[in-house]
Amino acid sequence: MSALSHVEAVPHVMTIAATLGEVPADLKTIAAWGCYGSSVITGVTAQNTQGVQGVHEIPTDFVMQQLESVWSDAMPRAVKLGMLTSKPTIEMLSGYLSGQMPQHQGGPFLVLDPVMISTSGHHLVPPEAVAAIRDELLPHVDWVTPNIPEALALARRESEVSSLEDMLTLAAELSESFEVQTTLLKGGHFSAKREEVLELQARKSITLPLSQGSSRTLEIAVEWEEWDDEGEGAEVLATYCASIDAPRSPDLVVDMLVRRKGDTIQLFVGRKIDTSSTHGTGCTLSSALACALAQTPAPIGSDSMERDTAVARKAINYVRSAISGAYPLGKGHGPLNHAVLTAPRPLPSPTPANPHPFMTHLIQSDLGLWKSYVKHPFVVQLGQGTLPRECFEHYIKQDYHYLRHYARAHALGAYKSSTFEDIEAFTDIAKHIARESTMHVGFCESFGIGLPEISATPEAAACAAYARYILDVGGQGDILDLYMAVASCLIGYGEVGLWLRKEVDAGRAKLEGNPYKRWIEDYSGPDFIGAVNRGIERRVAADPPSPERLARLTAIWQECVRLERDFWDMGLKRLW
């Protein structure tokens, strides 16, 4: 037995496509996924971020020579097919691949990205090549990943897609018409609205009219890429993006996965990333799919919607990360950042499309816990004006005690700081809290509670536990630890105030006639914006944490969110 017999081979993924745009993106993606990439070049393009200026076809016999050379030496586990420049090349590939399949039991996966129209809108292949892809090649592939214009061309449809239901029909018709196991219709060319997705989700199933008078009934499954299906996200991060003019589209992108013999259509829903860095998205997605399939432990012949959904989810998430992590390049549609999986850091760097990766990580690290804090029943009743007065009075008396400890924590931050900038920042916040305490007393007096009564009220267990934890973290840790310990209060109360404002606008909460109107107005201000930028994201970007350090910071955040939630519990249940 060889000494290396226990070492699992790196999956070999081949790309059959053109340069300049496709093959580099494919090979970068394959490398990022930990696979070995080989290439067969079908054409050479003259192109840049503004478009394709020319295509030079590689002769069919030389494409065949490349393919046989690589295949005979190391058969790939998966093959991604991209831009195929001529009908003879397509017919050759169809014959070769169909001839190889019976000889090799269980291999390889074939993923076709039917590149016909570039991101910038250029038609890349002649009509006879489109017909050859449709009639000769499609019956032999496992996956096909067209965008909407390519899907319309394959389906011979001239009508435009103007709704999600149109997209559903198009995906179902492609899946029904061709002998392709799995169709993933990319939705980047259509801007969907959240209401439209929610309406489809509520229907649960749909009967779609197909060509030649037939129809197909499919169950609708929806997977939301970010936050939850209410589209609430984190108001603090949305407001922060607006404060720095970071692009943030209200539209959604919906990708649709359907199997030829399946009874479900899976929708992957994500926020549309407002960026021009989209050059090579289709190539990247299909290559990522090929890698995910090559790495799947299941036998190649296994037929599973569950497997296909998992594979598509991984590939789509990778592409979204690569788009969000891209930096502008060129005058047109710039490239993605394919290195998002290979960069030696557990967090991506801030970019215009994702200016708050650290805060996003913290909130998403336990989204259920975060929502139990910022949408606690105490908060909901407060917004509706139905919170019992005695509960609120108990809360504001304890909040006075908490403010004292909160100020002490910031004074500790000033003591532990080593730069005048940080000393001034922590000192200013401590002084602001001291001024706020005076206003807090005035607020308490409006409820008939004077300073003597507040001072005589003992600290409840929830208040004492939270305050001691913050001071303990600040005493033992460094400045960033202390920032984490105080951040959940600052960011969370900002989120609560903004969310309540949103609820008021939607008619689910009220200001007029609400005895807690002043509290809501006080906590919907912009104080958190400077904290996100100055105190947290900037520090993490300048000194990226190791995986172990990130885990500790995340644990501090989660514990403080939990203690904040318990503080609401204390007020609502009048606990001591």
Characterize the structure shown.
With 576 residues, the chain is of the alpha/beta class. The chain folds into 2 domains: 12-189 and 273-340, Ribokinase (UDP-N-acetylmuramoyl-L-alanine:D-glutamate ligase, 3-Layer(aba) Sandwich); 357-573, Heme oxygenase-like (Heme Oxygenase, Chain A, Up-down Bundle). Helices cover 52% and strands 13% of the residues. It is built from 21 helices and 11 strands. The chain has helices at residues 22-32, 60-73, 87-100, 127-137, 148-154, 164-177, 194-203, 235-243, 281-295, 305-324, 357-365, 367-374, 377-384, 389-416, 420-445, 451-456, 461-476, 479-505, 517-522, 527-542, 547-573; strands at 12-19, 36-48, 51-57, 78-81, 109-112, 143-144, 182-185, 205-209, 215-224, 252-259, 264-271. An 11-stranded mixed β-sheet has the order 3-2-1-4-5-6-7-10-11-9-8, with helices on both faces. The longest helix has 28 residues, at 389-416. The radius of gyration is 28 Å and the shape is elongated. Residues 1-7 have low confidence and may be disordered.
